[in-house]
Design goal:
Organism: Isoptericola peretonis
Distance between the termini: 13 Å
Largest sheet: 5 strands, parallel
Low-confidence stretches: none
Family: Belongs to the peptidase C56 family. HSP31-like subfamily.
Mean pLDDT: 98
Oligomer: single chain
CATH topology: Rossmann fold
Order of helices and strands: EEEHEHHHEEHHEEHHEEEH
Structural class: alpha/beta
Number of strands: 11
InterPro entries: Class_I_gatase-like, DJ-1/PfpI, Prot/Nucl_acid_deglycase
Protein name: Type 1 glutamine amidotransferase domain-containing protein
Pfam families: DJ-1_PfpI
Number of domains: 1
Radius of gyration: 16 Å
Length: 233
Amino acid sequence: MARILMIVTAADSLTLADGSAHPTGFWAEELVVAHRTLSDAGHEIVVATPGGRRAPVDPGSLDAAVVGDQGKVEELAAYLDAVEGVLEHPAVLSALDATEFDAVVLPGGHGPMADLAQDRAVGAALVAADDAGRVVAPFCHGPAALLSATRPDGAFAFAGRRLTVFTNEEETSGGLGARTPWFVADALAERGADVESAAPWSSHVVVDGNLVSGQNPQSSDEVATAVLKLLSV
């Protein structure tokens, strides 16, 4: 049995390009698929947030008009209800040692853009986990958290690494559109990451050594499967 640290956003609002506040949080499908798949495989999962603050779900991710399937929304909501305790009272990320875990998983939603991308505890955990060869698996907007991984000398810990993330095209066509405050894919490329992308809304996962990344919610299952494969090696 592996121990998995799931770092989740605690942000429930993101300031958009026009200055308005957009309700946000983690994307339900991404957290549910990762948590359920890894738990069902027998692994222990510790959910943590910056400061141990409540992990809020993005309301859009439980909107049938957005998700496209009321039955799926009910399934996701039921799972979130079952794990409500750990989402309401997550561990304090700064109190944990990421190297004591076998993998670090970071589901998306726009929330990571508001907190995980700039959080020192997140950055420290990611640098430590990567340096120790632990699996690091962010997906959709989760790779925004990688931007916090700056070494003491100012170097970006994931420079030169191959990864994927929610694309600019997906953001403009089905994300925040013209109100997007910044594009995660562009920010990662500017820091030196080798960003790869596939057709919009198709499952796409990139594995670069211990780094597993997924492009969008559609990639959730494939990301979890890739993590399980690396954990079994």
